[in-house]
Design a protein that fits this description.
By secondary structure, the protein is α+β, with helices and mostly antiparallel strands. It contains 26 helices and 22 strands.
Amino acid sequence: MNRLASAYSRYLLQHKDNPVDWFPFGDEAFAEATRRDVPVFLSIGYAACHWCHVMAHESFEDTQTAEYLNAHFVSVKVDREERPDVDSIYMAATQAISGEGGWPMSVFLTPDGLAFHAGTYFPPIPLPGRPSFRNVLEAVHEAWVERRDAVEQNARGLAANMASAQSAGVVRLDGPPELLDAGLLSEAVSVLARSEDADAGGFGGAPKFPPSAVLEFLIRHAAVPDDGDGTAKTAADMAARALAGMARSALRDQLDGGFARYSVTADWSVPHFEKMLYDNAQLLRAYSHWARWGGNEVFGAEEAARVASACADWLLGSLQLPGGALASSLDADTVVDGVHEEGATYLWAPGQVKDVLGPELGGAVCAMMNVDVKGTVSELGSPLHPARQLSPDEQGLWNRAQPALLAARTRRDQPARDEKVVAGWNGIAVGALAEAGAILDRPELVEAAEAVAGYLHDVHWADEEQLLIRVSHESRARGIGGLLEDYAFCADGLFALFAVTGRKRWYRLAEQLIEAACTRFASNGQLADSAAESAQVFNAQGQHAALDPFDNATPSGAAAFAGALLTYAAYSGSQEHRLMAGNILGLLPPLAARAPRVAGWLLATAEAALQGPVEAAVAGPDTPQRRELHALLLKSAHPGLVVAVQEHDDGGPGNAYAPASERDRIPEAEVPLLLHRSGGPDGSAQVYLCRGMVCERPLEDQDAVQARLEAMASER
């Protein structure tokens, strides 16, 4: 009996009609495996995954394969986006066993959750270097029946190795942190430069992913005087090449502004077409921050602002749901006449372009946007992309062509949308939309950020239990409590929203999340990614709490939590939380020199920590002068700058960016950074610049504030 029909996950529902007797992940499945004395086949994927669709069609829809699975295994299907705790430990096991990782992930477990064999995609027939799925099933069944003792011994050994490997990510919270060495950050820039693809931008070879967390570090490092070591310019140039390479490539949808998950090629020319909320929210922030910094000759601020603005429009136009939250993703595939076609919505043949634009304009666009008779992705065609900066004349030509091509494309079959709402990813979007709204002077983006934040509070936050639920469907929270990353991403986004709007209700919700995360994930002097949601996952981890220090598609939970703690300490003056952030940053020394590509957010947080960070309190009556001072601070690229602005006495926003809203259900809190701050004796607004809550003489003039911020960047 297939038990997925009552699931809420779109990925699980894609498999509800399979002849495989699927279970959702949980105690019932493992109890059934114990009762029948058979192994568990664990299949992990996500709704937008192309190869997940392929393996489903080839194997899970095949009656004979399903009969073999049903006879010899208990089959469990997991949506990795709903259960990243399950995905993380079994991905580590898969990489240890097979030397590769990815989705669909195929893992074979003992009935108590220990992995003993694993791989990723298995084809229906053997291919060079890769057995068929049926071959794998038969071999695993034979080993389970004939060599059980060896199988179980190997599984226990792997779990022990998992526990040992996790020791690299242990964060002790019960002692003083080590002092940060600014030289580590310069060293990380030098190490990153050795793996840069200076021609196409980005790092490493194919497949190539957006280096979002690393970009944040590079942009922050570029904004700090480098004491003559040259790494500030190196960081700026690497960031510029990556941002330019992605912006002008097929990774970015040139028609609607959204970014694909990754490129199959090193030059960004062949995207894997799924579009994820977490990628686009992070890239919106990166391009906005580059525009705020001012850009350089490699990639200018004006182009970065256009890219950021289009990305924000895509997020809201393609992913926003009723109630304000953002959906998880768009599929890589488009179903055309019942067949999954990867990227079908986005690909163009020359004749199609000319049919829309006419022969002359269409021919010019094809030449400019790399659309050839022989499709670069498949026989369906090529994605539109210039792979270089357009000249002013070419940009004008593209501005004429783009609306007509987009209108024509909207009439095609469209990829499906996974409408589950993930708390942490929406938290990233809150911060990105709020900051982009301030930087790009688009208050409607700030209003959208408030709508997302309100949804997170109303649907995902259980106030009585002080619990954040990770996932919701149709405005109802379901499933497990949030992981460390969910609390951290949401707190970080809410602090950014508070900085822009001055609404203390967002500060209070962020504060509650920080307090709850400390209780939930920091115990016995250690930090963990989860609160032991599953006995089977705990067993697979060697019965040790796990903390993964490495960034993946999003920053690690530990790195994101360090950043949120540092910001909270700057607002509140809490030495306890500042020390906790410092303890987490103790993960950085070995990573900065050996693996900075997976430590981008730790490095970015370290830049903020070394800046103090600088705390800015804007006080005084709500006047145009105060709004200008507030806007100046929000548009400053100073790393680690934390901004607070007093609310109106009547509870209104009192600043240039906050929209009108009547959302008063979140209790407000005092913000220590704003206590006892006042305007000038003549009624003017003032900015207090502080470090560690120790403030300098308040300033009223924009030029004076800007000059002092620049000077403070040299004083770390």
